[in-house]
Design brief:
Number of domains: 2
Number of helices: 11
Oligomer: single chain
Largest sheet: 9 strands, mixed
Shape: elongated
Length: 341
């Protein structure tokens, strides 16, 4: 049985996530580490996330006779994941807050590795983990998204950087530091993790722990594309204040990769449009668009090679064009912020 005062407090925001939350709670019962509590911030769900409560007995969640301390705090109106996390964190008793998204599941050793890192290193303030590259579905896009994220974090990350994105899919921070920082900024309904990352990084390092992993089944193209659009919109808002790139949301190389790819696509479109008018323009356009695509391939080389080794040439080629479409959507989000401004 867990001790009376937990070491880890698991914070989960939930909005219309009853099924995925049940899967996450089920995976928590299989954790090899037991000294934790779970607090769910129900963001005024319509599907009655709080309906999971009948599975509780006197504040303990029970599956196959394995229990942990469990409670739900319900917001009266939908205010976004930042507010849901903050409300849940106020009830936390653990020394370390562990943030999980409601649509992930943990591995049996996930919490153990987090607890060990904090207990063995008293200078450690915050860490972020990663979701794995595997998907149960055979559909292309979820596999592409899992591979793209894994490559970005493991093959392409800035290994000299002293801080990384405090990614709430799986991230942990000492409770006193989180309280001192004032929690998540509730004005951000998206990119709240990035905004908090910037505030943490002003005084503390955020380490990347590649052995702290969770599993997530990705959605199909359009739901993910919509998230990319709005994350880019809010990132542009943050960039307006900071005026610099970083290893958190978008590096300079990632930006050049996006601009070169989308620029190449745009030049090809212009070439078709003006080809009947000017042969000289067509030659110049072809040369310039070729340079843009070479630059794009150079900055994307690590991911494409990784895709080829993992899934083959066909998957790598399809990934290239899927990525181009996503870059168009990402830049559209940033451009929309400029228009709205």
């Amino acid at each position: 049985m867990p001790s009376s005062k937990p070491y880890l407090s698991i914070i989960i925001p939930a909005y219309n996530a009853r099924e995925s939350l049940a899967r996450l709670l089920g995976s928590l019962t299989k954790s090899s580490y037991k000294n934790f509590e779970v607090i769910v911030g129900d963001d005024a769900s319509r599907d009655q996330v709080s309906g999971i409560r009948p599975a509780c007995r006197q504040g303990r969640y029970q599956v196959s006779k394995k229990t942990f301390s469990f409670q739900i705090v319900r917001l009266l109106r939908n205010r976004g994941p930042a507010a849901a996390r903050n409300a849940a964190a106020k009830l936390a008793r653990g020394r370390v807050l562990v943030f999980l998204d409601a649509d992930v599941t943990i591995y049996p050793d996930t919490l153990k590795k987090i607890a060990e890192k904090f207990s063995e290193d008293h200078d450690l303030t915050a860490l972020t983990g990663v979701w794995d590259k595997h998907q149960h579905t055979k559909e292309f896009f979820p596999q592409f998204k899992a591979m793209r994220d894994w490559s970005y974090w493991t093959n392409e990350r800035d290994r000299d950087g002293y801080y990384y994105l405090f990614s709430t899919r799986v991230a942990a921070i000492r409770r006193e530091v989180f309280s001192r920082l004032g929690g998540f900024n509730e004005a951000f309904r998206q990119m709240e993790d990035v905004e908090l990352t910037y505030r943490i990084a002003k005084r503390y390092a955020i380490i990347f722990a590649p052995d702290v992993r969770v599993h997530h089944e990705f959605e199909t193209f359009w739901p993910v594309a919509k998230k990319y659009f709005w994350r880019s919109f809010y990132w542009a808002k943050l960039y307006k204040v900071r005026r610099k790139f970083d290893p958190v949301a978008t590096t300079m190389s990632e930006t050049v990769c996006a601009v070169s790819g989308v620029g190449g696509v745009g030049l090809v479109a212009l070439g078709f449009l003006f080809a009947p008018i000017s042969q000289q323009f067509s030659v110049f356009n072809f040369q310039l668009s070729t340079l843009f695509f070479i630059a794009h391939l150079f900055f994307l080389r690590k991911f494409l090679w990784f895709s080829y080794r993992e899934k083959g040439i066909g998957f790598a080629i399809k990934s290239l064009f899927t990525g181009l479409l996503l870059y168009v959507i990402i830049l559209a989000g940033a451009a929309y912020y400029q228009l709205r401004k």
